[in-house]
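Section 5: illustrative case.
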């Protein structure tokens, strides 16, 4: 069943990813927490390990029948109309690390909320799946290896694929966050709450967290939480 994703956006422009994406198979690894990465993000707790299927099962209604939205300051609703069905996200940045780790995959508008931040956008790089020296796992490769299953299970609620759903939720979490903290000297934590609605009116809230690097440019990680709470640690900057 084709389902629209209902969202509220405070941006004056439509932020829509035009790329079509296919529903992927589950990754071989999920929710891996590496010691260095977790140490850098310790104030926000460990990145989630693999979620149980029950954590993602809709409490009511069939998979694919839910819509999702968030509310902006004006109470307006914006629908996700990004295409579905291709394999774009799975085909980008093949391998685990490679020499293309700094290639840009997507750029997301980001306000300069802290003196440490550089520029006015955050970048999803190809990245790498493991740590190398003082550089930690980051980017699309880390998201695909560590958090694809989490995004895919929530995407299935509204009949979407993991990649377009991840891109859409991360985009709005960075561009229009509900909560931002200076988590540590090298990390910023962003959160956005989304509301799933079943056709019978049942609603469920979930929050997507995004971790940016020291200057607010590099997308280190992102994942959907199992509740609608705002739990980023550190000093609020929004």
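Designed sequence:
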């Amino acid at each position: 069943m084709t389902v629209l994703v209902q969202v509220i956006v405070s941006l004056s422009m439509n932020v829509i990813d035009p790329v079509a994406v296919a529903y992927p198979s589950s990754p071989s690894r999920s929710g891996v927490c590496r010691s260095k990465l977790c140490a850098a993000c310790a104030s926000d707790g460990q990145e989630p390990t693999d979620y149980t299927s029950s954590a993602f099962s809709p409490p009511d209604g069939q998979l694919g029948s839910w819509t999702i939205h968030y509310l902006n300051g004006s109470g307006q609703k914006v629908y996700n109309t990004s295409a579905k069905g291709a394999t774009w996200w799975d085909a980008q940045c093949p391998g685990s690390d490679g020499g293309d780790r700094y290639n840009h995959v997507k750029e997301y508008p980001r306000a300069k909320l802290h003196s440490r931040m550089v520029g006015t956008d955050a970048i999803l790089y190809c990245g790498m799946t493991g740590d190398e020296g003082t550089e930690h796992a980051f980017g699309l490769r880390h998201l695909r290896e560590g958090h694809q299953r989490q995004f895919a299970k929530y995407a299935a609620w509204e009949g979407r694929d993991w990649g377009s759903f991840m891109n859409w939720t991360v985009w709005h979490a960075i561009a229009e966050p509900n909560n931002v903290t200076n988590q540590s000297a090298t990390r910023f934590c962003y959160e956005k709450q989304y509301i799933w609605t079943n056709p019978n009116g049942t609603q469920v809230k979930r929050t997507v967290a995004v971790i940016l690097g020291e200057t607010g440019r590099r997308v280190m990680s992102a994942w959907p939480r199992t509740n609608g709470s705002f739990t980023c640690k550190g000093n609020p900057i929004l």
